[in-house]
């Protein structure tokens, strides 16, 4: 329990295991990248900070793409690590192929290798051949282009790519004649302020909102809601599913909750040593903690 709640973000890389730790109110002073191969007894570690070319120590997300490159979304630039050096991408008002904003909110790579990036002011895709970025237009219900704060991106098991925003709801991406655009989707969620999207092993879509609690939309269209009865139940920040199928939700002000399928509700996991918060993302390791 202590390891899970005090270490905010876990990420598994494909060929090795990696652990990115972001701790404290300042959201990290450095990134610790542990390359761990469980088949070998030895472990190696590399520490990165602004002293060795990382653009910022304020990290929003870390992913590994299908080419084995590590992408680091920070509050001051996008970083790409190839195992030897970092390359930093920054916004340039004179270059339409640069990133939209230096504050990179989120990232996601789809099953076909498309790298998507979310910002306070829109959505982009990365062209690996030309090594530049192209904006993806998102259109509201009236067909007007919306300038959205992208908060979460998810590719569902059926292939749908959903883009959640803070203030404009949820969009679904479509490829029409070679042009990718987004239109409003998932209207069953009565909130336009979305924190996180997640799909569980049973194809249920979980939508974490910033003002209306949590929605769970089953594949048959049935909707369940949680943490919506009063304002004290807000501040939901993260969700994940363990290898045993358990659903966990993290809250900024109350720690960690586990879903109980028998009661169809979430129950807080007690931790009396200190008050804690789950500030960003939860990733389950191969061990079931609870």
Could you characterize what this model shows?
By secondary structure, this protein is an all-beta fold. 2% of the residues lie in helices and 43% in strands. It has 1 helix and 23 strands. It has one helix at 2-6; strands at 31-36, 43-48, 59-64, 70-74, 77-81, 86-89, 104-109, 115-119, 122-127, 132-139, 145-146, 150-155, 161-165, 170-176, 179-185, 194-199, 205-209, 214-217, 223-226, 236-241, 247-251, 255-260, 265-268. Strands 7, 8, 9, 10, 11, 12, 13, 14 and 15 form a 9-stranded mixed β-sheet that branches. Strand 22 (255-260) and strand 23 (265-268) form a beta hairpin. The longest helix is centred in the N-terminal third of the chain and has 5 residues, at 2-6. The chain is globular and about 55 Å long.
Separation, N- and C-terminal Cα atoms: 8 Å
Counted beta strands: 23
What average pLDDT do the residues reach? 82
What is the beta-strand fraction? 35-45%
Helix count?
1
